[in-house]
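Predict both folds.
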Amino acid sequence: MNKLLWPMLLLGLPFAAVAQAGQENDGESAGPARWGLGVGVMVNDSPYAGEGTRVMPVPLVSYHGERFYLRGISVGWKFVNNEALELSVLTKPRLDGFDVDDLGRRELAVNGIDRGLLEDRDKALDVGVDMKWKGRAGQLDLELLADATDKSGGQEASLSYSYSFELGNGVLTPNVGVTWKSKDMANYYYGTLDEEVARGVVDYKPDAVTVPYVGVNYYRPLGEKWSLLGFARYSSLPDEIKDSPLIERDTDGTASVFIGLTRSF
């Protein structure tokens, strides 16, 4: 199950942006509520030692109402929604981390880690707020999240800028952003736990980290009901993450590519 859910973390924000671009392109932002159902294929490379590249199907579900929305893996309620500004409260699962059995024993050994001494890094549930400023110059998005399940006990802030323009019969949206993870969150997902250190694992605590990324989203309607969507993203890992003994050696960044097909109802 974790092998299917992991890439959906990467999918959440890009799919939300793609879906929103398509919604605005169709002139439906103030229209009736609509559902979207579909399926896609994700290709992504994991930074964790031995996980490698994965290719897998991803289910797509979206809902756009006057206030309530479902975008990718995010569920939210808009309490401000006009042409220039959208403010919403939201919740979504945090699917970072790993199952120990998915890591490579040999790759971890190269980093000086005995896989048998590690523990899983569990999924969590985040709550927070999302703010979108939209104008002729593009869109600015600020998302503030906190771990409500106290798995890491940390917080995350993401700031991104995107600009959409028509390309043929579709909409192309280049974007650039940065994600900040608090000390507790970074230490949980990229450091070693105290109980692991007590067993003999090297003590590594990266503290807070900042991860920049660039990407591009694409949306194209196929008739009245069907749509093609996709995205590509590259995240550059800071030294605090690259130096972790849990990370594959010589890993400078992570990339993901997705393409999907949805039908609106």
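Second protein follows, with its predicted structure tokens after the sequence.
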Amino acid sequence: MSREEAVEIMRQAGIVGAGGGGFPTYFKYKNPQPRLIVNATESEPGYWADKLLHRVYFEEFLRLYEALKAIFGFEQIIMGVHFKDEEWFAPYRESADGLYEVVLVPDKYAMGEEKTLIKNIFRDDREKWVPRRVELPDGSRRPGIPPDAGHIVNNSETLFNIYRALFLGRPVTTKYLQVFGPDLPLKVYEVPIGASATEVLGIAGVDVEANAGRLSVIDGGPYLNEMGIEALGEGDCYVRRTTNGLLVIPKGVASKEYAGIKTRAPEEGIVSLVGRVSGVSVPLGGRFLRPARPLVSEGEEVDYEQKIGEPVDEGFSIGVWASMAGTVSSVEDGVVSISGGAVPQEEARAQTEAEATR
């Protein structure tokens, strides 16, 4: 596979930065660098999804590292891991064999920021730090970015999506995220992109009706987040390509009040909600993205992982794929809504609980 072929596969598969930035991944690989930095630091208190991905798909990550070295010529692949997670990532340290390195970094949640992560990985080599500013030919300046110092940085889930695209030919249709809160044990789900947060919370065991108006749902963690639902039961939000957590807290309380939240890896591991939600609203664009050209129209029946958006040539644009099977209920405002074809919510909750007891 050539570099150009791999980059186009990433573009068509719809891969963006899953860690929260949402920058189109294919564009980073258009200009290969000497080093690939794997951001495995789970940069929010209470998060477990990325660590579980590394545990469940350990062999897949090793295959991917080997492939990316072969295709893009990386001189180094370096995994940045929190000191507190050293034991969890012990299998990687034992299996590195020159293919990659594991570097332990301080247990600070700012470590999810790329420049800080790089600075701590290369503590004694300032030449590899990202410059604060870069002079441009026209005399202007811009903030430094990782490629200025020879790095491509990817979040763990982003890399797993690259694996699925390159090895399995599968597009991005789901998001791995945690549902948790001070009164809600943490669960990790693979959720269809565009799913209703309220419906996901119902499956997770939250009584939406009884808590109407009393709880807020944060899209993210205690530090880096956006308001998802200000008052549960009085609005909704939808799982995006960059949604990493649904933090359920009392309405009116600041999310940072839960910076010390303690969670445990769920015994059931990652539970898939594919086919278990009643509808999705899939965005054709995003923060950095020009909307893809819709390939479906209202009333059309679509299959799971069917392509519903073709990337446009102007600006950054990616392929978009159906995250559930069903009927297209609308195509408007850059969003394709699909309904039907799902397991009823009560049955979905029962199935999820059954999986948890196996």
